[in-house]
Amino acid sequence: MDSARDFSAALSIAQGQHWPLMGPEFGGFIHSGPIWFYLLAVPLLSGSLWLSAFMIGLLAGLKFLLAFYLGKAWFNRRFAVLWSACFLLPGWHSINTFIPGHINVIDTLVLAFVASLWQFNQSKHIGWFYLSGLLLALAMHAHMTALIAGVFYLPILWHMRHHLRFWHVFVAGLLFLVPFVPYMVSQWLDGMGDWIRWQALSREVDQARRGLSGVDASFLSAFSGNLQALMVGGLQRMQGFVASVWPTAGIVFWVLLSSLVALAVGYWGYSLLTKKGFRPLQTKVFITAGALLLIGLAMITVLRSFTPFYMLFVLTPLLTFIWAWCLSLGGQLPHTLTVLSVSVLLVLGALPVAALQKAVYDGQVHLGPLGNVRQAVNTDWQTDNNTLDALTVSQVDDWATFLCRQNSQVHGPGAALLDLLSALPVKLVCPDNPVLLGGKPQAGYHQYLLMHRSFWAQSDRHPNQWITPAWGVSENIELINSHAALQAAEFDDYVHPPRSLRQKQPMQTVHKSFQSNHDSLVVVSHLLPFYTANNIKAVTANGHKVKKLMANIGNSLYYCAACEPGAVTWDFTLQSNDPAALDIIILKKHDP
């Protein structure tokens, strides 16, 4: 959703429709400057979402070069290579490579900020100090938690106190403010909208989420939980994801990780036996990095009563530095063992990406609860139907080409996904031809059931057309809907997610009865699964209880195997606070 918001804002710039003064929203209360939107707009002038994603990947990939540069400057080439490779070690930061967005570049910008301070320390050239102020501001545009990296100023200000003057710090501060100037102007014009909203909503939102996130009562408890999540929780979650998609790869994951730990422990033991020991300077750097990591984590812990996974991303450079130090004992690992370690890290880093690719095309993407890294997960979290269909950037053009051929009214899993994306595929190609989602048939619109391969695979039938390798469409459908279709949500500067203010009714029981042929399938879709509640309580067909063939967080697929040839009477009992968000579709099991 955040990616769709960013791309939608950038597309409006590229098409000359809107010139925003505010950037992405953070935490529901505050915005950054708009520089990210304008940067994304440049490749979108070509109309290619893929090109924009490629640009984000290039910027994010600069972290490997920056880690190599700093690692070589501080230790040696072997450590530099290992530090760069440690960014591939799976963890919470792996999710940052799955979804294109502004936070993808936080590692690059934090490392660039540190590199500018290092260059200033080495060269005494004041321009590097000025640049650091601008880079810290840009890092905060990736995510506001990057402000934590400002602690690196403390040793520099102390060490370089004889070379710095007040006006040097003042100029660096002005450069820090430059990217925020459009945002400050917008707040002045809007009557300080963010500040008013923060005062009105901060306590309410925090208390509402407190009950949902398993929040710890004390700081020490929360801090220790976050530390465990940072060090091992992300690894465990990624292994669970890989294993749920590809069980053999899940075993390989643990074998490779264990071999990496064994190699490090073995080399530590060898170093102690041969009295190589720890070099004082490298050890001092390691202790400093560890202290900074703990300070940063403490600052993150006090920011909120819960800790979403993405708030840990700012610590990834420090975390990977510590991993590299532990693996190499501060750059002392021999060349052969360094090559072996890097090879293992490359394979480990490839496993989540390969699992994601497989899930995107053949299954569902499920990463478990991410709203609070301290939240305990059920042992069966990989199979609890809280999965989600996925649409890759490479598939967007094919969706757009199909949906823009004529007026399209989309039903089923594809409709819910289009709403989350604010119909971004359509906006890219035919912005003046809005797509409708769910609801009763609208005159002049073609009706399509758009479903992911994982659903089609359980339906014992094929779609009329595969518009991508993972998404198929059928027009041989009958709709059981009495409400009007929805239009895709539009993003708003002060309402995110965009349907957060949608009016909800009291929970009510909804009965749906209808007939179909015995060889028909029934798809029940919740068009707004992240905003309102629609729960299926009971399903019968000709009096037989019917189980789901396939389900995810918003969609369920049913077939009555026990029903004899002839008419089948279906009875659904649901609970809902938004019946208009229900979409029920009948399709024959075999096309004529």
Automatic annotation (TrEMBL):
Membrane-crossing residue ranges in chain numbering: 35-66, 101-120, 127-154, 166-189, 251-273, 285-303, 309-330, 337-356
Taxonomy, superkingdom: Bacteria
Keywords tagged on the record: Membrane, Transmembrane, Transmembrane helix
Protein name: Uncharacterized protein
Lineage, highest ranks first: Bacteria, Pseudomonadati, Pseudomonadota, Gammaproteobacteria, Lysobacterales
